[in-house]
Each structure stands twice: as structure tokens, then as C-alpha cells.
Amino acid sequence: MTHLEQLPPSVALIIAAFVALGSILTLIGALGLIRLGNFYDRLHAPTLATSWGAGGILLGSVMMFSTLGSRLVVPELFLGLMMLVTTPVTLMVLGRAALHRDRAEGRAPYDTLPLSKK
Amino acid sequence: MSMIPHPVVSILVTILWMVLTGFSTGQLVLGVLVGLIAGVGYGRLATDRVRLRRPGMMLRLAGRVALDIIQSNYNVAALILHDRRRHRRKSGFVRIPLDLTNRNALATLAIIVTSTPGTAWIDLDPDDNHLLLHVFDLKDEDDWAHTIKTRYEPLLMEIFR
Q1: Which residues of chain A neighbour B95 with C-beta distances below 8 Å?
Q2: Which is deepest, A50, A103, B120, B129, by most CB within 10 Å?
Q3: In sequence order, which residues have a C-beta less than 8 Å from that of residue B118 and are 6 or more positions away?
Q4: B125 interfacial to chain A (CB closer than 8 Å)
Q5: Cα gap A74→A69, rounded to integer Å
Q6: pLDDT in tens, B68-77
């Protein structure tokens, strides 16, 4: 870990804060996945990890490697963009599948029905 | 069909390829090739071209979304940690009438809404263009409709006009 010694302590602190924030948010998201009571609620928990959970860790990474000047920050930007763009697709497919099944089995909550069926 | 049906998509994929593999002439050739194929593939999937014409508006939208996501991250994290002790949280569905009809704009709104903790895009009713939104902490239904209609929809309408 030679390159870590080149980091000024103040920068290292900020990086640590970002990484800690990101991983705590990710942990809370995972916790939510266990604790929350129904499927639609659980859809919200992983977005903690994929938004600022990943964002915090990536920002820490950007700061670290731009301070050391060893490489460009572009990979982190793309990672963040890809996480942000691809996870909603999965969540939407899951959400729609759940609603479709609820509707087919007549369990859909009243306020989810299309106007034409009310 | 032209050789480069979707230049923006092709360029983005090429840059992504270069970033992930490292910069060299050989990888550039491969990256351009992959980018072109991706452009053709995208053309098969979606017929309307992506036009990115208002960079200022896009930056404003990105900033707004980043701030909103910070706020909702905090809210949802707090709610998950205090779920049983504090107030009774009520989640539920909200129907919101949308004026947006452009498919790319709707896709962008779906990504924004879903990647924001606390709100999830569930369905879009094709008959009357109503969005079905699931809200984690539902206090006031009109509040969410107001947020989407005033904070995101006008900007998206401008960007994807």
C-alpha cells in the first residue's frame, strides 16, 4: 500500500468519509430488504445502494486517484452512470411483474386500477 | 439505412469500450466496431433518434436529480432504521397524469423516479398516459404529483422537444 502514504491526511479523511457514507447507505439498503414488510416497499431499499451508496464510494475513488494523479476519473463516471441507468430497469420489471400478478389474482390494491376499470 | 444510424450511441459505446479496456490503437478499432454495431442494434430497438440539444437544461436536470436523491436517501434510510418505533409509515400508490409522450423522455423520467429512493415507477397506463407510482412514505398524494409535474416534467419536455 505504498500509494496510500502519499495521500495528505486531510484528503484521506474526506475520502474515508465518502467511502464510509457510501457503504453505510448500502448496508441500510440491505437491511431494508430484510426488514420491510411487502414487496413494493422492498423495491425502494436497494436504490439506496445504487444511488448515493455507490455514489459515495465512487466519489471517494475519484478523489483518491485524482489526488494521486495516477489516472483519469472517467471509469468511475461510467460506473456510476451504468449503475444509475441499469438498476431502474430491473426494478421496473420486478414492480410490473408483481402488479401484473396481483391484478391477475384479483389482489391489486384499489388505487392501482386503471381508470377504465374503476 | 445509413452506416451510422445513431452517432451519439455509437460514440458513447466507443468511449465506454476505451475506458474499460485501456487506450491503444487496436482497442480503438475494436471499440469503434462495437460502437457501430451497438448503434445498429439500438436502431432496431428504438425508432426515434436521440437528440441531445439542450446541454444547459440537461445539467440543470442532473443537478436537481442529484440533490433530490441525496434528500430521499436520507429520508428512506431514516425510515428503514426507525420503521417500527416512530410514526406509522404508510406506503401506497399514486396515479399521476403525464403530459410527456416522447418515449425517450418517459424512459428518462422512469430512471429518475426509480433511482430516487422512496419512489418507484410501476406502470404507465397507455390509455390515458397516467403514471402509476409507488411511494414509500405516502403523506400527501398531490404532493408527489406536484413534484413530478413541476420539477422534472417541464425540463424533460424542453430537452426532448
Answers
A1: 111, 115
A2: B120
A3: A44, B72, B75, B76, B135, B136, B137
A4: yes
A5: 13
A6: 888 888 888 8
